Amino acid sequence: MTTQVNPSAGPVRPDDAAAAVDIGPAGAGAGTGGSAARVGGPAKVLIYAVLVFLTLVFLTPIAFILLNSFKERFAISNNPFALPVGEMWAGLTNYVTGIQGEGFGWAIVWSFVITISSVAAIVFFSSMTAYYITRVKTWWTSTLYYLFVFSMVIPFQMVMFPTVVIADRLGLANPLGMVVLYVGFGSGLSVFMFSGFIKAIPLEIEEAATMDGCSPLGTFFRVVMPMLKPTAITVAILNAMWVWNDYLLPYLVVGLSTPYRTIPVVIQQFIGSQGDRDLGAMMAMLVLAIIPIVIFYAATQKHIVEGVAAGAVKG
Question: How far apart are CA 183 and CA 165, in angstroms?
Answer without folding.
Answer: 18
